[in-house]
Automatic annotation (TrEMBL):
<protein>
    <recommendedName>
        <fullName>Glutamine--fructose-6-phosphate aminotransferase [isomerizing]</fullName>
        <ecNumber>2.6.1.16</ecNumber>
    </recommendedName>
</protein>
<keyword id="KW-0808">Transferase</keyword>
<keyword id="KW-0315">Glutamine amidotransferase</keyword>
<keyword id="KW-0032">Aminotransferase</keyword>
<feature type="active site" description="For Fru-6P isomerization activity">
    <location>
        <position position="364"/>
    </location>
</feature>
<feature type="domain" description="SIS">
    <location>
        <begin position="41"/>
        <end position="180"/>
    </location>
</feature>
<comment type="subunit">
    <text>Homodimer.</text>
</comment>
<keyword id="KW-0677">Repeat</keyword>
<comment type="function">
    <text>Catalyzes the first step in hexosamine metabolism, converting fructose-6P into glucosamine-6P using glutamine as a nitrogen source.</text>
</comment>
<feature type="domain" description="SIS">
    <location>
        <begin position="214"/>
        <end position="359"/>
    </location>
</feature>
<keyword id="KW-0963">Cytoplasm</keyword>
């Protein structure tokens, strides 16, 4: 049931605040993380010396975001790998490796096979999954469910936010077990997480119709680029994937620092480029780097659409459009910056008259290799 929305995707984007809130619900007590599903695993978390995250598509981008938080808080090295690449090489894994799989459906064959492969090689496996009782969690040593609710539209939206939320909860939990974060430090991060749902609602309220209008004007666009740095990089990849998937427009995401190593050659007058701008308050250096990237592409005629924090005026002289997101600590910005990109992809597909829920050639869950 679409509940009055024109598509399941529209409904699911509107549920992004709840997807985060429901994934947090019952897992925070007195400012600390409590995940009953992980009881009894302290020894494992204390002993691991490596984490490998495996997933496909959007779930892999959630993993890339999670890497920043996991490494920052737990100080355990983290690799993120596409599930279908992972098992066709000879990965270095063993009992000290925790393999974290991420899957909305819990049925993605590539991810399932990678989990089995890791387990057979002696690694410990933990599944982050949105579907109760699915195959991947059943094949894993531990499970942290995301509580995004059923996702029907083929393109993943609310589940992506729930996956990042679950990874952050896991990272904070592991950091407390290992003692790499104090109770007070963890409490501050928990406060940031708890503030996210209201901030997403604010984006939907203040920016949604403006972004849809922008998408409508851009319905004839043939190619869109997305740039981001640090946690904004996987968000750029996600913005590009969603646009290809449902609007059939060529789109690519780049790490902003890669520009001069090649992609800047693509910039010609009128080329639309979304740029995820880090917070100027919290990461002044990164912010200034991204602003200079904006200047470089603008000088070559790019049409710049900046996703930037409220109050960031430094982007104004160089951006053709600024989509605003509320203030947050850098690690939490992905949970906000992705929302305008989901709205944009949906708006553009809608403007082209496409079926946003059932894009051509794609299935909701890919149960073949
Ligand atoms: C993108 C999308 C896909 C899935 C990928 C993994 O919008 O939906 O890229 O994210 O197929 O699916 P799950 O999470 O079910 O394993």
């Amino acid at each position: 049931d679409k509940g009055g929305w024109p598509s399941f995707m529209a409904k699911e984007v509107s549920e992004e605040p709840e997807a985060v809130a429901n994934t947090l619900r019952g897992r925070i007590r007195d400012g600390q993380i409590v995940i009953p599903e992980l009881d009894g695993l302290d020894e494992l978390f204390a002993s691991i010396n490596r984490v490998i995250v495996i997933a496909c598509g959007t779930a892999a981008y959630a993993g890339m975001v999670g890497k920043y938080a996991l490494e920052q808080w737990t100080r355990v090295p983290v690799d993120v790998e596409l599930a279908h690449e992972f098992r066709y090489r000879d990965p270095v894994i063993g009992p000290d490796t925790l393999v974290v799989s991420i899957s909305q459906s819990g049925e993605t064959m590539d991810t399932l096979m990678a989990v089995k492969y890791a387990r057979d090689r002696g690694a410990r496996t933990l599944s982050i999954c949105n579907t109760q009782g699915a195959t991947i969690p059943r094949e894993s040593d531990a499970i942290v469910y995301t509580h995004a609710g059923p996702e029907v539209a083929v393109a993943s939206t609310k589940a992506f936010l729930a996956q990042i939320t679950a990874l952050y909860l896991l990272a904070l939990h592991v950091a407390r077990v290992r003692g790499s974060l104090s109770a007070d430090e963890a409490r501050l991060q928990v406060l940031e997480l708890e503030a996210i749902p209201a901030k997403i609602s604010r984006i939907l309220e203040l920016e949604q119709s403006r972004i849809e209008q922008l998408a409508y004007w851009m319905a004839d666009t043939r190619s869109v680029l997305f740039l981001g740095r640090h946690v904004g990089y996987p968000i750029a990849l996600e913005g590009a994937l969603k646009l290809k998937e449902i609007s059939y427009i060529h789109a690519e995401g780049f790490a902003a620092g890669e520009l001069k190593h090649g992609p800047i050659a693509l910039i010609e007058p009128g080329q639309p480029v979304f740029v995820i701008v880090p917070s100027p308050r919290e990461s002044a250096l990164l912010h200034s780097k991204v602003v200079s990237n904006i200047q470089e592409i603008r000088a070559r005629g790019a049409r710049v659409i900046a996703v930037a924090e409220e109050g960031d005026v430094a982007v104004l002289p160089f951006a053709d459009e600024v989509l605003r997101i509320p203030l947050a600590d850098p690690l939490f910005e992905p949970l906000l910056a992705v929302v305008p990109l989901h709205i944009f992809a949906m708006g553009l597909a809608t403007a082209k008259g496409l079926d946003v829920d059932q894009p051509r050639n794609l299935a909701k869950s890919v149960t073949v290799e």
